[in-house]
Design brief:
217 residues, alpha/beta, Rossmann fold, Arc Repressor Mutant, subunit A, 2 domains, 58% helix, elongated
């Protein structure tokens, strides 16, 4: 049985010590550090190289989400499980973006936290059912938005896409006309069509929209 090196980051001393003791009773888990805030969590992770970090979100000096992002950027093989009383959408999505692989609520049974740590060690994610449902809903929404965006861009002609890229590069109508060997009037007509299709108010909004959705770098 592989030993799991676990770091516990929790600002409440009693809760942190209780969790550490409970986890340390497990034959396959070894506590390699206890951190009262995000800064200490990062320092202990650097020095002790845990396999898994059990990370609270709300902590002094540096919160768990920022600590998660730092640890994942420096030590990508370290798995991080968020353990918190907060199940609001903002916290959930920020934690996932930062690199957390699991998200467990503090009022969950200890067996759930143990299962989440063991799953994380295997590279598997585990989330509270209510959290998982909202994550799936958000992913579905993002996918639908991207699909709609691609449909909008599909309506642009090749020439319009070409001009939009140049607009996004801060080229003037005159510069675009010279580069494409067309008249400024033709450029203006194309830009009018682009604004209409994207439902943008002006060329700046169209350029930002295109950049946001990946049409231009």
């Amino acid at each position: 049985m592989d030993e799991i090196r676990l770091l516990v980051a929790e600002d409440e001393p009693v809760a942190r010590q209780a969790m550490a003791r409970l986890f340390d009773l497990e034959p396959d888990i070894k506590i390699v550090g206890e951190a009262p805030n995000g800064e200490v969590a990062i320092d202990l992770a650097r020095r002790n190289m845990p396999d898994v970090v059990l990370m609270d979100i709300r902590m002094p000096k540096l919160d768990g989400i920022k600590a998660t992002a730092t640890i994942k950027s420096e030590m990508p093989n370290v798995a991080i499980v968020i353990l918190t009383i907060y199940d609001d959408d903002a916290s959930v999505f920020e934690a996932i973006k930062a690199g957390a692989i699991g998200y467990i609520l503090k009022d969950s049974p200890i067996d759930n936290a143990l299962a989440a740590v063991r799953a994380a060690h295997k590279g598997e994610g585990m989330m509270h059912p209510a959290v998982a449902a909202r994550v799936m809903k958000e992913f579905a929404r993002v996918h639908a938005d991207r699909k709609a965006d691609m449909q909008v861009f599909a309506e642009l002609t090749d020439r319009e896409r070409e001009i939009l890229k140049l607009v996004a590069s801060a080229k003037s109508n005159k510069e675009i006309a010279e580069e494409l060997f067309i008249s400024e009037k033709t450029v203006k007509n194309h830009i009018s069509n682009i604004l209409f299709k994207l439902q943008a108010n002006d060329r700046t909004e169209a350029a930002l929209y295109a950049a946001k959705h990946g049409l231009v770098e």
